[in-house]
Amino acid sequence: MDEAKNDEKYDLEQLDEETLFIVSQTFKALSDPTRIRILHLLSHKEHSVNEIAEKLSLLQSTVSHQLRFLKNLRLVKYRREGTTLFYSPDDNHVMNVLQQTINHAQHH
């Protein structure tokens, strides 16, 4: 009987395909140095595409491309002010993972 319960518990803990895909895409997002830099900058305050490009010495097209990738994963969101979009983090869980990983890397 105990084996059956363990098997049932294991089945309930299995990750569905959608969850696996989202988790792997999130780690893919966090595996790119440019995206890490953008997310780290946004973790302090919201910024426009131009501000991000200027502060990180990146091309505006590069920043826009990376923000689109991050937005599709719901890692960033934006608000519009006139013709300017201001980006900020959209998921505290992922931002916490990022910050913890940065803390780990800096803890020699």
From TrEMBL:
SUPFAM superfamilies: Winged helix' DNA-binding domain (SSF46785). Keywords: DNA-binding, Transcription, Transcription regulation. InterPro entries: ArsR-like_HTH (IPR011991), HTH_ArsR_DNA-bd_dom (IPR001845), Metal_resp_trans_reg (IPR051011), WH-like_DNA-bd_sf (IPR036388), WH_DNA-bd_sf (IPR036390). It comes from the Bacteria. Residues 15-108 form the HTH arsR-type domain. GO terms for molecular function: DNA binding. Pfam families: HTH_5. PANTHER family: ARSENICAL RESISTANCE OPERON REPRESSOR ARSR-RELATED (PTHR43132), HTH-TYPE TRANSCRIPTIONAL REPRESSOR CZRA (PTHR43132:SF6). This is DNA-binding transcriptional ArsR family regulator.
